[in-house]
Amino acid sequence: MDTIAWRDVTDAGEPPPSDDRSTFTLHINGSDRKLTLDHRTTLLDALREHLGLTGAKKGCDHGQCGACTVLVDGRRVNSCLLLAVAQEGAHITTIEGLADGDRLHPLQEAFLERDALQCGYCTPGQICSALGMLDEAADGSPSYVTEPGTAAAGGPVPLDAAEIRERMSGNLCRCGAYPRIVEAIEDVAP
């Protein structure tokens, strides 16, 4: 029987770079964090397992549920599909980086006011996705349900319930809090 060699995770320092590890810096929530990780480490695992930022959740680990959604350079992404080493130089925002001290982000406040959650597992991804979606609509990016010609006009895409539902369709909620999620986003939408 083969024995497995385990690395003591309580070591004070990171192991040195090697053929399968790199040292790089991630800019997360306004701070630079230097890491030495296996090249195959996903951004989600780097956030959760190496940086202690557990807001983004590991749901499906296949980019299908949206529980791991974070913002990379202002765009919403499934962090389970991105390699951490490829994000060097990008500005990453997680749910932990949205509040300003004790003051919640307006989307976080709206989710609380509307009771737009039940178990809360998907909520960080929902909120990060909503923030990215609001920026996309403000930039005039159309969705499948955007009225033809709206985006061509060059202005923001108006957000009604159908538009919000379509744009948030990549974020699943097993509890079914969708009506309240849409209401919370409508409360914050321009």
UniProtKB/TrEMBL annotation:
CDD domains: fer2. InterPro entries: 2Fe-2S-bd, 2Fe-2S-bd_dom_sf, 2Fe-2S_ferredoxin-like_sf, 2Fe-2S_ferredoxin-type, 2Fe2S_fd_BS, Aldehyde_Oxdr_Iron-Sulfur, Beta-grasp_dom_sf. Residues 22-98 form the 2Fe-2S ferredoxin-type domain. Pfam families: Fer2, Fer2_2. Keywords: Iron, Metal-binding, Oxidoreductase. The keyword Lyase does not apply. Residues 1-22 are annotated as: Disordered. It comes from the Bacteria. This is 2Fe-2S iron-sulfur cluster-binding protein.
